[in-house]
Design goal:
The complex is a heterodimer. By secondary structure, chain A is mainly alpha-helical. In chain A, about 75% of the residues lie in helices and about 0% in strands. Chain A has 13 helices and two strands; from the N terminus they run αββαααααααααααα. Chain B contains 15 helices and no strands. Chain B has a domain of about 170 residues: Orthogonal Bundle (MetI-like fold). The chains are: A mainly alpha, B mainly alpha. The interface between A and B is large, with 95 and 84 residues.
């Protein structure tokens, strides 16, 4: 009797389990899973607007001759390769400084460095655009302290435009990553550092031998998040450089947007490029898991 | 030796803090100067604030724009919190092999960038004749996988005994969710609401695709379009940026602890 009742209850609970998740699952199905699958199908088609025909691997062949795509790919990769390591290292250094028990004004520093995270990507990009103009405040400052002899053409030169984008993203996200590391560092027993100090380990040694290994899972998480973020860079380039000068800061996301909503739409080809990003993210995530996830190191 | 490294540390931290805060100062000073003065790097406050503000009011219907932003952000937050928290609760409390598989698959799709979703999404809403509607902006972000994940992680610390006790008291499963779980998890809801609100308020790409008529645009879109003018008026834009940033900055200072908890809560 009791057993039967229990099994009945178990069944009822399972039913509630389904009803609690049902709305969310249906919505994820419609607005996430279906688009992912549909994009993959679209990537085999070509055509203008709604008139599309099957194109097989034609879109992929086109990638190899499309120089705009190749530029966008190169730019996106440049941002990723340079920006993510700089930012991760910088936020690790800041976090470990703020974690030292003797550091004063901790919460003041933490609040200040975190503050950029509350701005919208559009707002800060436009702000940076006004600061990095040719006669702007940044050049004025650098000239006044004699770091440079001539103003830097931040937004007018292909190289410097990339630098500006990298500086801007680093400004916006360093504090965000720092917060994760500070949380991770709280789980490290301070006596480990104490012991290392007594053994005569330098600050640098403590950083590379204690902080980094202990934070490995958090570093892995933030690196993957930053990788995904950087590979779909859009708001910043649109509002800071507009992808220019030339196509020197054009990113894959912006190119997809242009192909779908600015030029005569070619949804099929745009979908193919979006799958290039998916592919790169997957490969990089696997690599990062392989490096970061191994326990024996 | 130790003294020197300590001095370097403080110089470094002060420098980083200064760089972090400077653009905020720049934004406030800029709002009081003319566009030319801003692009020429004038660092002292001027007397153009009222003038810039009046010009902004002439150029855009500011109350309408703010209403649009608030409508999208608040509706997204309320709906997302309700539906995602129910899902997070359901996944965590009623364990089931199939649901576990669904959950893990959903987490995997979080890696797919939005660029790969936007074209099919656009076509869905075009077919449904919902282009240029605020609902088309809101609906896709309601069942955010990240927020579901966030609630499930936090539900792990929710005492199951409360559920069992409530069952003995005769509450049904939904009553337990609404009367026991929700009030107990207030701080999780607060943290999640900050994340979702910020995301919706600051969202750019998707509203840019969906919202086409002037009367539907959000503040983020307005800032972008003001700055993409042939001769952008940076004085006016600075005022608009201050207005757009104020709600999130205030949220941050009022609920700083929740704010940070909300961000890191996801990796517990």
């Amino acid at each position: 009797m009791n057993k039967v009742k229990k099994r009945g209850l178990e069944k009822a609970y399972q039913k509630s389990g389904w009803s609690f998740i049902s709305i969310a699952v249906v919505m994820v199905l419609v607005f996430n899973i279906y688009p992912i699958v549909n994009s993959l199908m679209l990537s085999t088609m070509t055509g203008k607007g709604v008139v599309m025909r099957f194109n097989g691997l034609g879109n992929i062949k086109r990638l190899f001759v499309d120089t705009v795509f190749q530029t966008a790919l190169k730019n996106t990769f440049t941002f990723f390769i340079i920006q993510v390591p700089i930012m991760i290292l910088l936020s690790l250094i800041i976090a470990s400084m703020l974690n030292e028990p003797k550091t004063k004004f901790k919460s003041l520093f933490r609040t200040a460095i975190f503050l950029p995270c509350v701005t919208s990507l559009v707002a800060y990009s436009v702000l940076f655009r006004s600061m990095f103009s040719f006669d702007g405040i940044i050049n004025k400052f650098l000239l006044s302290i004699h770091i440079i002899a001539d103003p830097i053409p931040w937004l007018l030169d292909p190289f410097w435009a990339k630098v500006t984008i990298i500086l801007a993203i680093t400004w916006r996200w360093t504090g965000y990553n720092m917060i994760f590391y500070l949380a991770g560092l709280q789980n490290i027993d301070p006596s480990i550092y104490e012991a290392a100090r007594i053994d005569g380990a330098s600050k640098f040694k403590q950083f590379t031998k204690i902080t980094v290994p202990m934070l490995k899972p958090v570093i892995l998480f933030t690196t993957i998040m930053s990788t995904i973020g950087t590979l779909q860079l859009f708001d910043e380039v649109v509002n800071l450089t507009g992808g220019g000068p030339g196509n020197s800061t054009l990113t894959l996301s912006q190119y997809i947007y242009n192909l779908s909503f600015v030029f005569t739409p070619n949804y099929g080809y745009a979908a193919t490029i979006s799958y290039v990003i998916v592919f790169i993210v997957a490969v990089l995530a696997i690599i990062q898991f392989k490096i970061g996830g191994s326990k024996d190191e | 030796m130790n003294k020197i490294s300590s001095v370097i540390k403080y110089i470094f931290l002060s420098l980083i803090s200064f760089i972090s805060i400077f653009p905020f100062v720049w934004m406030i000073i800029g709002a009081t100067n003319t566009s030319t003065e801003i692009t020429k790097g004038r660092i002292s406050p001027g007397s153009e604030l009222i003038n810039n503000f009046t010009k902004l009011l002439e150029m855009v219907d500011l109350p309408l724009v703010l209403w649009n932003s608030a409508k999208v952000a608040i509706l997204t937050t309320l709906l997302s919190l309700l539906i995602a928290s129910m899902a997070g609760y359901g996944f965590e409390l009623y364990r089931h092999k199939t649901r576990e598989k669904i959950y893990n698959f959903m987490l995997l799709t979080m890696m797919v960038p939005f660029a790969a979703l936007m074209i099919p999404l656009f076509r869905i809403f075009a077919k449904a004749n919902m282009l240029d509607s605020h609902w088309a902006v809101i609906v896709p972000s309601i069942a955010s996988i990240f927020v579901i994940f966030f609630f499930r992680q936090n539900t792990k610390s929710f005492p199951v005994e409360l559920v069992q006790a409530a069952r003995v008291d005769g509450l049904n499963e939904f009553q337990i969710f609404f009367y026991i779980y929700m009030p107990t998890m207030k701080s999780t809801y607060a943290a999640a609401s900050i994340i979702v609100f910020m995301g919706a308020w600051n969202n750019f790409l998707w509203p840019l695709i969906i919202l086409q008529s002037q009367g539907k645009k959000t503040i983020t879109l307005v800032i972008s379009s003001l700055s993409s003018a042939y001769f952008p008026d940076f004085g006016v834009i600075m005022v608009a940026i201050i207005i757009a940033t104020l709600p999130t900055v205030l949220m941050f200072f009022i609920m700083q602890k929740r704010f940070v908890e909300g961000m890191i809560g996801s990796i517990k």
